[in-house]
Amino acid sequence: MSLHVASVGMGRFGKRTEGLITLATEAANLALEGIGRKPVDLLVVGSMFAQGSHGREALLPRLAGQLGLESASGFRVDSSSGTGGMAFHTAALALETGRYERALVIAAEKMTDRSTAEITKELSAALHMSEVAAGATMPGLAAIVTARYLERYGLSTDICDVTAVHARSMAARNPNAHFQKAVTAQEVAASRAVALPLRLLHCSAISDGATAVVLEKGTGPATVLGLGQGFDALRLVDREELTSFAATRVAARVAYEAAHLTRKEVNLVEVHDAFSPFLLMHLEDLGFCGPGEAPNWFEKGWVGLDGRLPVNPSGGVVGRGHPIAASGLAAIGEVALQLRGEAGSHAVATRPKVGLAHAVSGIGTHNFVTILGGETA
Predict the structure, then answer these.
(1) What number is the average pLDDT over the span 129-153?
(2) Which residues contact 84 (CB under 8 A, 6 or more apart)?
(3) Which domains, ranges and CATH numbers included, belong to the chain?
């Protein structure tokens, strides 16, 4: 059965005054308007925190009521930072059963109304309990992975600065991105230490925001060609390799096989760079270059809007901002906008035919790959 992204709705990411329901409704209404408000019989919502002013929100029924979808079926999903990818895959698999005609997929998060300490603690729920007991945090573990990658390939922290500069330069063209100003490598290197070698501008920011897409039967410029998921050991110490994410490699292999495509046929990629150096590892795991070769792609400018493989034209997670659940769906939405010719000021130089979106849960624990393209791709 063929499925395609018929419309995308996305509000601005960043520090927003609105609550979670309002942010999610804003994105949903934009997506529904894009299809002329045709009937929707499936609602899939993703959120990790779903906190309101009085505690956890009854998110799914509240949104169904706000959007007039009381007669639709519904699911709520949560896979930490991979939630947006999971929500999209859930909707696609449900539609493929033949029971539903059209799904509205929403991923939303409200985070800036809480302290950094609170958010850091809650994000630790995606880690192994023994790591949390030892005082580990997401940035702390990401720093260990980054240091091992730099050591293995004889790299300096300069390449981390280069990837952060790339993210911010892309985001500066995207009106919905959290960060609207480019930065220099010197500014990145001078930002405060978070968990060395990671500095503040290497890390994704706490953001508010939501994304919604309408997924329906049929084909179009953003047809679902392949879906893949993969898991890895929850504890870093139990993994065979620290400079590569097995969950991404598995998800990519499954998605490429389902799409009957190779990475050489992908014209655009949106990668989950929650920490800017991870962008290098993800590109390698997705098969676009060999181990240790991704830095060369940035140094040669192959990842720009007019490069051989445009990478994260939205700004990615570091540039676009990171409302945890929304990021994975935002990546899929960005690929769909580029394929549909609707990306506007951040459109790549040549309209792509095939695009890949990548989402990551935790420190690469449960990862998702989504390949979209034209019906004749």
Answers:
(1) 95
(2) 46, 107, 211, 325, 326, 327, 328, 329, 330, 331, 332, 359
(3) 3-114+207-215 (3.40.47.10)
